[in-house]
Structure formats: structure tokens, C-alpha cells
């Protein structure tokens, strides 16, 4: 007999932890550090405080470095100076999967409130030990919880709860728990992750103590932070049936015209009307049943607003009344369109709407098939304004430069921030940078640093859209030769990063995103080309000077001998005039 | 009397060379001292600037000139090499030493003036010739010797250690090599009244054995194939200083014909130089018509031979009636013959019958 059983989200992730990246001990420890560091950085970003994050990994049971390659049990402790969590939210924030502060539309590192709890969940299932949370929002108290997750019911199990006085007005969160992992295999990835995080977050102080007691410090180079993102409404292009149903459930609007305006990004009255008309959700008054005051309102509206007077003309009253007399049509929109063939349908709709002759359904009364049609039409309608980028928090060219200079110390750097663009209703911004020399390794291939919402992407490089774009470029055109110390950085900011997997490893091949990445890289590559051309020029001039210094004295010597003179001619001026080019080149 | 004249000619040449090289250095010196990059202007040697001059009866360079300036980085190295070559030449002439092209190539390395290869070094020397108007032999740079002479001419050496010593050119039965010491010698006494230039060593020896020098009162010169520049210059001097007519005998094919022509009218490669041609010299055979008249044993003309004949047809040096006739005949009979072919009538036939007939024919 088949039995059906509901499973909780925690249970679901317990059973499917692979898809969240906890595939093996080394990957698990890497993902745990990453998720918690990202939570900490997000939380400080929200407060507009330059983040300070302290991460410590220690091996338990006193076994230090016993087996360099095997698994071990580690204690992971992360401390930040972020917003802190209100006491009543602490249990849910860390003891319940899919509870998070990020489940809204604005750019943040984490998206679902999933990662941090998943990390703790993983710790619990591998060591069966509780997690210790300490947090304060900067008030008079610090709250401390010892708890576990009830996996089957997706509920926190509080084992102990303490309150302490916060005499130092400390604000932030400390998370400490045990997990099984393999640090030594994950070490290079963790260090690379922290280095790249420091690169893309140059205003953060990050310290890491590894199980051997080695301290890695990534010191901030600036306290300037990018402006925090603002929350935005959903854009119609990015909405699915489920989202629409949720919006209908919570809305207090009575008709679709208002509904569209209130719950969607950059939808005003005009757009709302045209869209609903396009989607077939607009009904206009029936002339056969229209009362004289309805006609009066229509005529008055034209008189009242300048723009309607402009479109419909002074004699409009007569034309309308004449048309109404003769007609058998049941739609005022139809009559008006016939009477004023030169006026656009949208304008007529706006007029009718302002005269209260337009009806749209109450969203709560939409039938399921109507909801589906509405969503479909949203994707088809081509006159929605593109989303604006205020909900995004790109790093900005200055900070990007600061970060790269700090971590790579290159000889040359060019950064570019593209204008906001959208894919499928989601706004995004591409930031690119190219750096040459310094600590960048000389490789056959260009070193690529990929970031999405300030998160370094370290795995599956070959599948990433940026890498494909970079491979598709003819680099010789930019004077780039193989073996140059060259790094390219791509940062994608979006309210929804088109990851291909839950594991946040690489970005899918969206044409809009691809085009922006290509343009961004081309822009910085052109500047690199100029730099390389100049270098080449300087090198050429240096060589030039060398050649002149070699031969001119010989000419002087031989002609002195030939001419039978005793003194050499003065060629200092000549050599100086050659070296003039050189000083220009520098 | 002869001695005096030629002595002046030889001596003057050396002085002229030194004077010219000194001026060359002085010009460059002054240019540098005045704060400009040294430069020289010389006639262009590109093919479109080489013309055949019917007046001078040789190839000459046209009006076009090129400016070599040390300001241009691409010119800088060859420019320096040329100045060095001038310096080296002046050292050779002053110290009365001779040298070969190969020597020049290696000597440069002592001055950190490495040439890429022999052609580069040769080219630089040609530049110096063009810039100064002197041949490299005037700078005491000689090719390997292979030509020789024999006959009643007494020369007086000017080379160090032999100054004033005289030698009659009949003193050695194999002939005397035309080397630097012969070329730079002064003509002291001449008992001969004509010069016979011969392409091949075998015939040269035969002529000496058969005492052609006595029988015809001739000075015999072996060109050993295409005559070296030193030999062409020497023939020019014999003709000019001693007024001796020059007759040339070569194989009966387009190549032999051209050996004679280069002695007479020079080559395009030497268009920048004078004194290497002997315009009044005459080609005596073997003609194509001789092949017919004397019924000589022959070889068929090869494709290369025929191609060469067609080239010569268009060559501006080959405008004379004799040349036209012979080219036409060669193309008609499609046959060629070597000088030795006369041996079919006995070893002395060429001296007893052919040579007197030819000399008579040319004297007309």
C-alpha cells in the first residue's frame, strides 16, 4: 500500500542536501563558511555599517592535524557587527528553513534565507550537537540561545535561553556550531573565496583563523559603501501564477486597474489601462443603458482637461451626442473610436476612465483561467516600462577599483559599470573590470573572477556565461597575448541572479545578460588595448634610444677619424633629442 | 714617357680616394657638430633609376637620389656600417694594405659592427661606392684572383716592398695573375700593340704555347669566364693609357657573347661606377656565323640558352648590327660551339687560320 506523507521544508532539504551544495565533506565546510559569511555581510550592508566579520574554524576532540586528508569534526564560529536579530526572531531565523529577511525583491547576497539554516541543519545531522546563537540589535540586552532544529516539523527546539546585559552596546550576531567536514581539502577554496570576497567588498574587515591557528586578515581599504538597495514591487514580466495569487490574496484594491498600479513595478494608470485593454479585462459602458449624466460626465471631462481638449477638439460635444443618437453599438469605446478616428485608443480609454465609464473586475473575483490569462498577457504586453535599478546595489567603479587594487595590486586597471538592463522582468547591472600585472598570475588563459550580488563564484567556471563570452572574444584585437598577467572581473547584480543551480555556482546563458557582459568586457578591453599600445610604444622608444646610443657614437668616431680631426663632435644634443620621445612615453 | 703618365694616373687615384673619403668624413663631422643627424645623399640604385646611356656606352644612374639619414632608425645601422666601411677603406689605402670582401665582413666584428651576413656587408660596400663614386678596388678591396695576363708589357709595382721593381709580363709561362699588385702597378714599357682577351684558360695556354704574343704582337688576358671587375678596369687602363685596341674571344654561345659585352659596356650592377668599361673593345668570336662558315662541331642550344638570347634581343646594349645579326643567327641555327671546337682541324688551326682572319676582319 502506498502511503502519502507531508514533509516539511527542513525535511525536504535534509533529504536533498546535495542540491544546496552539501555534496561532500570538503564542499560542505566550504559552503557553510560561505553561507554564514554572506549572511553577516548582508546584515551589515543593511545597516550601512562597514562589515567586520570574524570566522574561526577549530578541530574538535583535541585532534589537531591528525589526518590531513580525512574528515573531522569542526567548530565553526562566525561573529559580525551586523544588524543583530530581534530576540523573538532568533529561533525562527536559525531554526526554521525558508525563514529569512531576504524574501523580498531587492538585491542581497542570499535570496531565500536558506543558506544559513541549511548550514546549521547540516551541522546538526552530522554531529547531533546544538547551535549557539548570540545576538543583539544594540539595545540593552544580548540574547543567547542554545537550540536544535526539529527537522520533521521545521521548528526550532530551544534548549536553553539566556539574557545578558549589553553594557558595551554591542550589536551583531555570533553563531557557533559543530559540523563534520574536511578543511584540508576545502582550504584552497575557502581562502580563495575569502580573498575574492575581500576584493568585491573592499569596505569589509574579514578575519579568519584556520584549524592550525593561522590568522588570515583581509583589511578594508575604504569605509565607503555602495548605497543600499531599496525594495521594489514585482515587475509584470517577472511574475508567475503563484506570485499573482499571493498578491490577490493580500490586496485591498477593488478592481484590476488599481491592483496593477499598486502591486507592480513602474505601472501607472495609463499603462494599467492599456495593458488591461490589451489583455481583454476592460469593459466600457453600454451606450444603450447610459444615463444622461454619464454623457454629461464624458463631455465635462473633455472640457476639464487640456490634453483631452487638445485631442478631441472643441466641437466634440456635438459629435459625441450625434454619434450616441444613431448608434446601436453596445460599447462606448467602439462609438468613440468611430467618432474620433484620429485619436488613439489609449487616449479614449483614459478619457472614459476619467469619466468613470470603464469597469475592471475585482481581482479577488478572477477565475483561475483568468488569472492564468492575466499572467500570460503580462509577458506578451510590450509596453511595460523596464524596471529601474534602484533596487540594485552595484559596487560602483570606485569601489571595484579599490577592491582590485587592494587584492591584486595590478599595474593597470580599467573598470566599467553598465547601464541597468533587464531580463525577463528582472533588472540587472553588469560591472566589469580588467587588470594587468601585479600579483595576477601569468597563465595561458585569462584569470576570471566571477561575482553575483557580491558573491564570488568559484565552481563550474567553464559553464559560466562570462567565461564563454571571454573565450568568444578575439583577444589579439586588443593586443592581448597568451601568458600575460591578466584578470577579468565580472559582477552581475540583480534581484534575481539567473543561477543554473541552487548551489549558486554559475550563471545561465541569458541573451540579455550575455550581451551586457560582452559590451562591458569590450569597454574595459579597449582601455586595456590603449594601455598595452602605450607600453609597447614606450618599449619601442626605449629600444630606439638604445639603438641611437649604440650607433651615433660610432658614426661620430669613424667620421672623426675619416676627417682627420682630433676631437669628437658633440652628439649629446642629438642623443637628448632622441630621448625626448622616451620621456613623453612615460 | 708611358711610365710617367700612368704613374700619375695611379698615384692620383689613391690621393683622390683619400681626399674624397676625408671629405666624406668631414661632412658628417660638421653635420653632427652643428647639431643635426648626419646624412648623405646618393644616386638611387633601384632598377627604375638605371638607364643605358648611348653617349657613355654603358649603364648609368639617373637623376633620382636617395637620402640616407641617421635620424631614421631603419637607416641608422646601415648608415653606421657605411661610415665604418669608409673608415676601413681609408685605413687600407693609407696603410697600403689590400683586403677581400670576406675580410671586410670579418674586420667589421673588431669594431662591434657585426654584419648579418656576407651579402649585407657587400651591399654596404656598394653603398660606399655609390656615395663616393669609387670602385671597391680603389679602396683596395679585391675579389679572389682568377684572371691572368701574358705578353710584352713591363709594369712597375707600387705596392709596399716592391716599389720601383719592374717585371715583364712574359717572365712566367703560365701568365701572371691580375691581382692587387698588378692592378695598382704603373705601366713602364709596352712592346705589344694589341690586347687579346680570352674566356678560357685552355685557349690562353694554347696561345702562349703557340707564341701568339709574338706572332701577333699581342698582350694576352685570360678573363676566366666573366671578367672580374679588377680585370675589366685593367683592360680599360690598357686601352685608355696605352691606346691598345682590345679584342675579345669567347665561346660561341649567348653567355660568351655576354662576357664580351660586359667588358665593352659594363653591367647594370656597376651603373654607379666609371672606368670599368672598354667601349672600343671588339668581340671577335666565336660568332654564330663562324659556326656555319667553319663548320664547327656543335651542341644544340638549350631552352635556357634560347631564353637568354631573347633577353639579349631586348637588351639596350645589343643594338649594334653585329650583335643583332649574331643573335638572329644563333636563334636560326639553334646551335652553339666552344672555342676548343677548332681543334677538330688540328691544335694549331685556331692560331694559324682563324685568329689572323678575325684580327684582319676587326681591324677594318
| Dominant shape of chain A | flat
**Average pLDDT score of chain A:** 86
Oligomer: heterodimer
Derived from helix and strand composition plus strand pairing, the structural class of chain B reads alpha/beta
Q: What does the secondary structure layout of this molecule look like, with pairings?
A:
The complex is a heterodimer of chains A (586) and B (364).
Chain A: H1 9-15, H2 25-46, E1 52-59, E2 72-80, H3 90-95, H4 115-127, E3 131-137, E4 141-150, E5 155-165, E6 171-181, H5 183-200, E7 205-209, E8 215-218, H6 241-250, H7 256-263, H8 269-279, E9 283-284, H9 292-304, H10 306-312, H11 316-326, H12 332-339, H13 345-354, E10 358-359, H14 368-380, H15 397-408, E11 412-417, E12 421-423, E13 426-436, E14 447-452, E15 455-457, H16 465-472, E16 486-494, H17 511-563, H18 572-585
Parallel strand pairs in A: 1-7, 14-16
Antiparallel strand pairs in A: 1-2, 2-6, 3-4, 3-6, 4-5, 7-8, 9-10, 11-13, 12-13, 13-16, 14-15
Chain B: H1 2-33, E1 39-43, E2 50-53, E3 58-61, E4 65-69, H2 73-94, E5 99-100, H3 101-110, H4 118-132, E6 141-142, E7 148-150, E8 153-156, E9 166-168, E10 176-177, H5 180-183, E11 186-190, E12 194-198, H6 201-209, H7 212-215, E13 218-222, H8 229-241, E14 246-249, H9 254-265, E15 282-285, H10 288-293, E16 299-300, H11 303-314, H12 321-333, E17 335-336, H13 349-363
Parallel strand pairs in B: 5-6, 12-13, 12-14, 14-15
Antiparallel strand pairs in B: 1-4, 2-3, 7-10, 7-13, 8-9, 8-11, 16-17
Helix pairs in contact in B: 1-2, 2-4, 11-12
Amino acid at each position: 500500500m502506498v502511503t502519502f506523507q507531508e514533509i516539511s521544508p527542513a525535511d525536504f532539504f535534509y533529504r536533498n542536501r546535495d542540491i544546496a551544495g552539501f555534496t561532500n565533506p570538503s564542499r560542505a565546510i566550504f559552503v557553510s563558511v560561505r553561507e554564514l559569511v554572506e549572511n553577516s555581510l548582508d546584515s551589515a550592508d543593511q545597516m550601512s555599517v562597514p562589515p567586520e566579520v570574524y570566522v574561526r574554524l577549530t578541530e574538535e576532540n583535541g585532534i589537531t592535524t591528525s589526518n590531513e586528508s580525512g574528515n573531522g569534526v569542526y567548530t565553526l564560529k562566525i561573529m559580525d557587527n551586523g544588524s543583530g536579530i530581534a530576540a523573538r526572531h532568533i529561533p525562527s531565523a536559525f531554526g526554521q528553513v525558508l525563514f529569512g529577511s531576504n524574501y523580498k525583491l531587492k538585491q542581497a547576497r542570499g535570496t531565500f534565507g536558506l543558506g544559513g539554516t541549511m548550514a546549521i541543519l547540516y551541522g546538526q545531522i552530522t554531529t547531533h550537537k546544538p547551535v549557539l546563537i548570540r545576538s543583539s540589535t544594540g539595545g540593552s540586552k544580548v540574547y543567547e540561545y542554545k537550540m536544535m532544529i526539529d527537522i520533521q516539523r521545521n521548528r526550532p527546539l530551544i534548549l536553553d535561553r539566556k539574557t545578558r546585559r549589553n553594557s558595551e552596546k554591542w550589536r551583531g550576531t555570533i553563531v557557533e556550531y559543530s559540523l563534520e567536514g574536511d578543511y584540508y581539502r576545502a582550504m584552497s577554496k575557502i581562502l580563495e573565496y575569502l580573498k575574492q570576497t575581500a576584493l568585491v567588498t573592499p569596505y569589509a574587515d574579514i578575519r579568519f583563523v584556520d584549524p592550525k591557528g593561522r590568522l588570515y586578515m583581509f583589511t578594508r581599504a575604504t569605509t565607503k559603501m555602495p548605497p543600499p538597495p531599496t525594495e521594489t514591487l514585482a515587475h509584470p514580466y517577472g511574475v508567475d501564477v503563484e506570485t499573482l495569487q499571493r498578491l490577490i490574496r493580500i490586496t485591498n484594491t477593488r478592481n484590476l486597474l488599481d491592483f496593477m498600479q499598486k502591486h507592480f513595478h513602474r505601472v501607472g494608470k495609463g499603462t494599467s489601462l492599456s495593458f488591461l485593454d490589451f489583455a481583454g479585462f476592460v469593459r466600457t459602458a453600454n451606450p444603450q443603458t447610459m444615463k444622461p449624466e454619464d454623457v454629461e460626465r464624458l463631455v465635462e471631462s473633455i472640457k476639464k482637461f487640456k490634453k483631452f481638449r487638445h485631442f478631441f477638439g472643441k466641437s466634440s460635444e456635438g459629435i459625441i451626442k450625434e454619434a450616441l443618437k444613431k448608434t446601436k453599438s453596445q460599447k462606448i469605446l467602439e462609438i468613440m473610436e468611430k467618432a474620433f478616428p484620429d485619436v488613439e485608443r489609449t487616449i479614449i480609454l483614459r478619457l472614459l476612465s476619467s469619466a468613470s465609464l470603464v469597469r475592471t473586475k475585482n481581482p479577488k473575483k478572477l477565475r483561475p483561467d483568468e488569472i492564468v490569462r492575466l499572467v500570460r498577457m503580462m509577458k506578451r504586453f510590450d509596453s511595460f516600462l523596464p524596471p529601474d535599478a534602484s533596487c540594485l546595489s552595484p559596487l560602483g567603479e570606485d569601489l571595484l577599483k579599490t577592491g582590485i587594487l587592494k587584492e591584486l595590486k595590478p599595474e593597470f586597471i580599467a573598470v566599467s559599470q553598465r547601464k541597468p538592463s533587464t531580463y525577463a522582468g528582472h533588472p540587472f547591472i553588469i560591472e566589469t573590470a580588467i587588470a594587468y600585472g601585479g600579483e595576477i598570475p601569468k597563465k595561458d588563459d585569462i584569470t576570471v573572477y566571477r561575482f553575483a550580488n557580491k558573491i564570488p563564484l568559484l565552481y563550474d567556471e567553464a559553464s559560466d556565461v562570462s567565461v564563454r563570452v571571454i573565450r568568444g572574444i578575439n583577444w589579439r584585437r586588443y593586443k592581448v597575448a597568451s601568458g600575460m598577467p591578466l584578470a577579468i572581473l565580472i559582477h552581475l547584480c540583480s534581484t534575481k541572479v539567473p543561477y543554473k543551480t541552487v548551489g549558486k555556482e554559475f550563471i545561465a546563458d541569458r541573451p540579455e545578460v550575455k550581451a551586457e557582459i560582452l559590451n562591458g568586457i569590450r569597454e574595459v578591453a579597449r582601455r586595456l588595448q590603449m594601455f598595452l599600445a602605450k607600453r609597447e610604444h614606450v618599449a619601442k622608444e626605449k629600444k630606439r634610444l638604445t639603438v641611437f646610443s649604440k650607433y651615433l657614437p660610432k658614426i661620430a668616431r669613424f667620421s672623426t677619424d675619416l676627417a682627420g680631426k682630433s676631437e669628437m663632435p658633440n652628439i649629446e644634443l642629438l642623443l637628448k633629442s632622441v630621448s625626448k620621445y622616451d620621456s613623453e612615453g612615460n | 714617357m708611358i711610365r710617367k703618365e700612368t704613374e700619375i694616373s695611379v698615384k692620383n687615384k689613391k690621393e683622390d680616394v683619400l681626399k674624397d673619403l676625408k671629405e666624406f668624413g668631414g661632412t658628417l663631422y660638421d653635420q653632427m657638430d652643428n647639431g643635426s643627424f648626419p646624412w648623405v645623399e646618393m644616386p638611387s640604385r633601384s632598377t627604375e633609376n638605371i638607364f643605358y646611356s648611348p653617349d657613355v656606352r654603358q649603364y648609368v644612374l639617373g637623376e633620382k637620389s636617395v637620402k640616407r639619414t641617421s635620424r631614421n632608425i631603419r637607416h641608422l645601422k646601415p648608415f653606421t656600417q657605411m661610415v665604418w666601411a669608409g673608415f676601413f677603406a681609408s685605413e687600407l689605402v693609407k696603410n697600403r694594405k689590400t683586403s677581400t670582401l670576406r675580410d671586410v665582413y670579418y674586420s667589421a666584428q673588431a669594431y662591434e659592427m657585426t654584419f648579418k651576413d656576407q651579402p649585407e656587408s657587400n651591399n654596404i660596400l656598394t653603398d660606399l661606392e655609390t656615395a663616393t663614386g669609387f670602385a671597391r678596388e680603389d679602396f683596395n678591396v679585391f675579389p679572389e684572383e682568377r684572371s691572368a695576363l701574358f705578353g710584352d708589357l713591363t709594369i712597375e709595382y707600387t705596392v709596399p716592398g716592391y716599389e720601383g721593381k719592374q717585371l715583364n709580363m712574359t717572365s712566367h709561362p703560365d701568365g701572371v695573375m691580375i691581382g692587387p699588385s698588378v692592378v695598382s702597378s704603373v705601366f713602364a714599357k709596352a712592346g705589344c700593340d694589341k690586347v687579346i682577351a680570352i674566356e678560357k684558360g685552355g685557349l690562353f695556354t694554347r696561345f702562349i704555347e703557340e707564341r701568339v704574343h709574338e706572332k701577333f704582337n699581342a698582350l694576352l688576358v685570360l678573363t676566366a669566364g666573366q671578367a672580374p671587375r679588377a680585370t675589366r678596369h685593367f683592360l680599360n687602363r690598357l686601352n685608355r693609357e696605352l691606346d691598345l685596341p682590345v679584342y675579345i674571344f669567347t665561346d660561341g654561345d649567348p653567355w660568351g657573347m655576354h662576357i664580351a659585352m660586359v667588358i665593352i659596356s659594363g653591367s647594370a650592377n656597376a651603373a654607379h661606377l666609371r672606368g670599368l668599361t672598354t667601349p672600343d673593345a671588339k668581340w671577335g668570336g666565336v660568332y654564330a656565323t663562324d659556326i656555319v662558315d667553319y663548320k664547327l662541331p656543335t651542341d644544340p642550344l638549350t631552352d635556357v640558352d634560347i631564353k637568354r638570347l631573347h633577353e639579349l634581343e631586348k637588351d639596350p646594349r645589343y643594338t649594334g648590327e653585329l650583335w643583332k645579326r649574331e643573335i638572329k643567327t644563333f636563334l636560326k641555327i639553334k646551335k652553339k660551339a666552344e672555342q676548343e671546337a677548332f681543334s677538330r682541324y688540328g691544335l694549331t688551326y685556331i692560331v694559324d687560320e682563324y685568329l689572323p682572319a678575325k684580327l684582319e676582319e676587326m681591324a677594318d
